[in-house]
Amino acid sequence: MYFHDAETLERSALEKLQAERLKKTIELAANSPYYSEVFKNNKIDPSIIETVDDVKKLPFTTKEDLRSQYPYGLLTQSLDNFVRLHASSGTTGTPTAVFYTQKDLDTWADLMARSMYAVGLRKSDVLQNMSGYGLFTGGLGIHYGSERLGCLTVPAGAGNTKRQIKLIRDFNVTALHIIPSFALYFAAKVRAEGFDPADMPWKIALIGAEPHTEHARKKIEEMLHIKAYNSYGLSEMNGPGVAFECTQQSGMHIWEDSFIAEIIDPETGDPVEDGEIGELVMTTITREGMPIIRYRTRDLTRFIPGQCKCGRTSRRIDRIMGRADDMLILKGVNIYPMQIEKIIMGIPEVGQNYVIELIKEGLVDQIRVKVEIKEEFFVEDMRALQGLQKMIAGKLRDEILVTPRVELVQHNSIPKSEGKAKRVIDLRETED
């Protein structure tokens, strides 16, 4: 194991360590404008923490709280002590920004190296990072973790299949970091280029950044002749490296010496029993520059009962089963239906009804937006309709960073529900 002592701690010792680090985190968080006010209003100080269960005495933090404090309201130190920031995608409303000191980056790199070691990567491996870099945490998080582990790291970035294949073959790449939807597309393209995946040097794929089913994972493994390992992360908690599978592929280990994980009923906020699905709540306990306490991720999962056969003692969570809110994740990008509605409703030719469909386009997840057009604009001139269709797709791409399929339909042709409008329909399973 990468950090054997930390990864095999007895439960009592681990919970003692968590309580100590939680107390220190409260001391640090009190230096931020936001938590200073929250703690004052709720009469909270470090003395209330005696055991890790005392985390429940602390209030939740939500994405709305983070947005309200944009950009600097959660920082515990002066800005000149920070060396990196990442921010959420999208242009609607206020984004969330997460800041890192050098120590925070070092801790994150260690968590990533530990995660990679857990799935079998070693210093002798060559990892090709096929994820986007920039404000998205996935690219740089994996990159620095790979270098920390000692792997030769190829920062290929996203897209350009032919170049990806050439790099893999030329440099004998043994591990890939790849988004699940692109992995399926990439597998088909490899064969189309005349290569047999079974003859390629790769052996391990790190997949994450968007929800995917076990069926999709198995398909990736079969099509690429590779072992694909699931991971979990979110920018508010660093990025990737919050939880990772091991070679057993029996759930993702939460690195509990750096995070406290809870699973609650999303309606009541009360804890649920192990094995029961609920909303994941996370607290950082090793981040110094911008600690976040009891963050409601809105991700739905469950604790997997029992201990993993690998010998690690940390709790495991199941793959993410959905969202407690309406956020969509496509190609690693967070998309809210209201972003789409904002654009559509601002176009004069568009009527009042639309529907967002999640579909399979070949092997890749895609968004199809059906838009009703006002009668006076729904003409027989195909060039005019195609121009309108292209314009809507372009405006949506600029907003959500993903190009959707846009289908223009006649006024009143989309079925209307009697109650609350069902704006998002997932057709992927029916098309599988």
UniProtKB/TrEMBL annotation:
Assigned keywords, A-Z: Ligase, Nucleotide-binding, Phosphopantetheine, Phosphoprotein
Pathway: Aromatic compound metabolism; phenylacetate degradation
A Pfam entry, by short name: AMP-binding
InterPro entries on file: Adenylate-forming_Reductase, AMP-bd_C_sf, AMP-dep_Lig_C, AMP-dep_synth/lig_dom, ANL_N_sf, PA_CoA_ligase
SUPFAM superfamilies per the UniProt record, alphabetical: Acetyl-CoA synthetase-like (SSF56801)
Catalyzed chemical reaction(s): 2-phenylacetate + ATP + CoA = phenylacetyl-CoA + AMP + diphosphate
Assigned EC number: 6.2.1.30
Positions of the AMP-dependent synthetase/ligase domain: 78-282
Statement: the UniProt record of this protein carries the keyword Cytoplasm: no
Recorded superkingdom: Bacteria
GO biological process: phenylacetate catabolic process
Keyword Thylakoid on entry: no
Gene3D superfamilies noted in UniProt: 3.30.300.30, N-terminal domain of ligase-like
Location of the AMP-dependent ligase C-terminal domain: 332-428
GO terms, molecular function: nucleotide binding; phenylacetate-CoA ligase activity
First-level EC class: ligase
Annotated family: Belongs to the phenylacetyl-CoA ligase family.
Summary of subunit composition and partner proteins: Monomer.
Job of this protein: Catalyzes the activation of phenylacetic acid (PA) to phenylacetyl-CoA (PA-CoA).
Protein name: Phenylacetate-coenzyme A ligase
Organism: Maridesulfovibrio hydrothermalis AM13 = DSM 14728
Lineage: Bacteria, Pseudomonadati, Thermodesulfobacteriota, Desulfovibrionia, Desulfovibrionales
Gene name of the encoded protein: paaK
